[in-house]
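Lab notebook, bench 4. The sequencing result for the construct came back, and we need a structural model before the next group meeting so we can plan mutations. Quick request posted to the team channel:

Model the 3D structure of this chain.
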Amino acid sequence: MAASPRATLAIGLIAACAIAVLPATPAQAAPKPSEEQLRAQLKQLNSKVDKQIEKYNLKRVDLAKAQEAAKTAKARLAAAEQTLVTAEQRVAEIARLRYQNGNPGLPGIMIPTDADTAAMLEQLTAEQQAIVQVVARARDEKKKASEEAAKLAAKIKADTSEVSEQRDEAEDVIKDIRKKLEDLVPYGTGRNSDGSWAPELPSGSDNITSRTRLMKAQVEKNFQLPSSVGCFRAGASGEHPLGRACDFMMSTGGSMPGAENMALGDRIADWAIKNKDKLGVKYVIWKQRINQGSGWRGMTDRGSITENHFDHVHISMN
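Done. Here's the predicted structure in token form:
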């Protein structure tokens, strides 16, 4: 039996009231950015910080040039002023000689009657006037250079503060992005509920375990490696023949890495230790030291750069 129009209206009103009193569903959270998006943001911010540093450095160079110009102008002014003093002394000396030669009543620099003296005085006067013009130009140059240097110094001070603030802001965002990237580091396979790790057999053409393969891939993704990576090695000691260790080379031919690659090795070692519980890292060896989760401790000298792990970061897995 079909419901009457009145009944249909009543049902509709009841449904509308019910919907009106239902609690509002919370707004959906914004989706988390992907790893690719986070890495793009990090690259963009690093580029921005580099440009700010370059701009700041160029301004410092400009300031140094302006200060040097002001110093040069000051030296030129001092030399010109000394030349002027010397010229004035020469003119005064001739005037005294003229006065002593029979014209005691004439003060100062007189109108000369002797042709040679007149010519000399005229020459010295012209020389003096020329030097006065040089001094005037030097003073103007010094004033201009000093004003420009002072103006630039004030601007540098303001710009330095601004660049420093911008850099701090950018580094805060970079730290946040890096933290998010660290959160994206996946968990290795075979972890037990008590935190221990189940043994794994090597597999694949690279003859390493799945945990080792995951660790290697994450290092390669997070760092720009300068050289090769060696993992499985038959006949070696430790975890290499078991497929549970990799050597990340920072140089070749058994040579000591440069400062840049040394710093890179430090970052890789620190990263591995920081993510050991996620990935299943057993220990890290780098620069004749070993870290098994309780801090670095020194190792005995094995006789070479390679054996002492100065040219590669060794990461062993559980």
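The beta strands are 229-230, 245-249, 281-285, 289-291, 296-298, 312-317.
Will bring this to the meeting.
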